[in-house]
Amino acid sequence: MAQGQAALLLLADGRLPAGGYAHSGGLEPTVQAGRVSDAAGLERFLVGRAETTGFVAAAFAAAACERVARDDTAALSALESELDARTPSPELRSVSRILGRQLLRVMSTIHPHPHFARLGTVPHQPVVMGVAAAALGLGPRDAALAILHESVAGPAAAAAKLMRIDPFDVHAALARATERLDRLADAAANHADALASELPSRGAPLSDIAAEHHRSWNVRLFAS
Amino acid sequence: MRWSAKLSTLVPDKPAMEENSMAKTTPTNEHRALRIGVAGPVGTGKSSVIATLCRSLSDEFVIGVITNDIYTDEDARFLRSEGVLPAERIRAVETGACPHTAIRDDVTMNLIAIEDLERDFAPLDIVLVESGGDNLTATFSPALVDAQLFVLDVAGGGDVARKGGPGIGGADLLVINKVDLAEHVDVDVGQMVADAEKAREGRPVLAISRKRPETTSQLCDWVRQLYRAYVDGSHAPVDPGPMAPHFHATDDGGHVHSHEGGHTHHHHGHE
Ligand SMILES: Nc1nc2c(ncn2[C@@H]2O[C@H](COP(=O)(O)OP(=O)(O)O)[C@@H](O)[C@H]2O)c(=O)[nH]1
Ligand SMILES: [Mg+2]
């Protein structure tokens, strides 16, 4: 169990220089639209994100980790298209690939591994997370947990810049979410060897619409 | 055009599994452009300095520009509207309100933006990277640029240069801009330059104004000289790094701080 914990912390650390700080995980347009305005609203947003797109990303990260570990490169390509199909917003597809490219750039530099050559130049972030986890000797559940952590820690870090909120309240929400993230990581890892087409497809339509609006703003703090 | 929109032209909306691995798209050092960072507080004239360099040097060098924006892509739009370079050679990176991080702790976005620019317009001679204006402590990482300018202006006060800090003390060139305004803000430019030279232990300082062509031509000469040194391999990149030890005057004659251990001190022009 304790095996690889340090590697997982490395991968999940927001200070990993992969450019995540420039994104709010959809929080900026949501705050602007008045749908989140206080700590309770932020907590609902974070839970919703973890349970929907976070969970889908986790299942794809787990599946990518499992496939690359057994050398099934063709299957990675299927994951890419299945994840596209689960991301209706063109903006969010693009953001996921930008973040994936950045993560690939960092991980292949700091921890070179033949696995990284199996990815294209602009792969989806969850797929890169799965491959990076495998390269670090981690398993599908670790990959799932890392991306779930990222899916809530990113918008949580952005919250202090976007709304009037006590940072302790932000982190209290993250603390309350830990058991949920563990549970979701278990569930996502159960899908690791499922057919790509059978992977979970939960969605958050309002986030997709918000991302499309956000991309057209002239003035914004975050890139997404 | 926004960066995200620009990038979407490079990011095919389909899997790119069959494409080359990252390493093949990354330009090798021998072919890559000289990368010059332009840092300094908001409004001191970073964009104007870049416009001047592009205007004066674009007959000699193929130049590309990356701007780092805080809220908007205004800097990129300003530079495109100046018409100093083909618009597509000026790209904006969105820094998520962390201009400091984007040039120092987490340079991945900027690095990818530079490499894309170099690949799309190969061969470029020089890439200029404008930092989103931050405070006096923000300097570029040596992982991102080969050399950097730090831009102050006389309107920020004659004392700023004396206060030092990593950018003022250690940048390859310190630019004191808008000297045409000195008489209106009661700044003695000669004194400000002397203070800066002292803080910089001999590294170069240029006092310039875009209204005085003889001063901006000195700036261009500095870049030409840097380029020659870069190409012949004699340019040694330096890192302004963390705060250098500095002196505080006190009643008992002062004491020296040494900022050890690589702490980042966020004093905003302290004292
Ligand atoms: N008087 C004077 N104004 C200048 C000079 N250079 C720049 N400015 C003005 O200073 C303001 C800020 O310049 P800008 O280049 O946008 O600064 P940045 O925020 O550092 O990029 C603009 O209004 C410029 O027109 C100069 O040499 N003299
Ligand atoms: Mg500017």
From TrEMBL, chain A:
InterPro entries documented for this protein: UreF, UreF_sf
Gene Ontology cellular-component terms listed: cytoplasm
Keywords: Chaperone, Cytoplasm, Nickel insertion
GO molecular function, one term: nickel cation binding
Gene3D superfamilies per the UniProt record, alphabetical: Urease accessory protein UreF
Localization per record: Cytoplasm
Role noted for this protein: Required for maturation of urease via the functional incorporation of the urease nickel metallocenter.
Membership in a protein family: Belongs to the UreF family.
Self-association state and partner proteins as the record states: UreD, UreF and UreG form a complex that acts as a GTP-hydrolysis-dependent molecular chaperone, activating the urease apoprotein by helping to assemble the nickel containing metallocenter of UreC. The UreE protein probably delivers the nickel.
Protein name in UniProt: Urease accessory protein UreF
Originating species: Halomonas icarae
Lineage: Bacteria, Pseudomonadati, Pseudomonadota, Gammaproteobacteria, Oceanospirillales
Gene this chain is encoded by: ureF
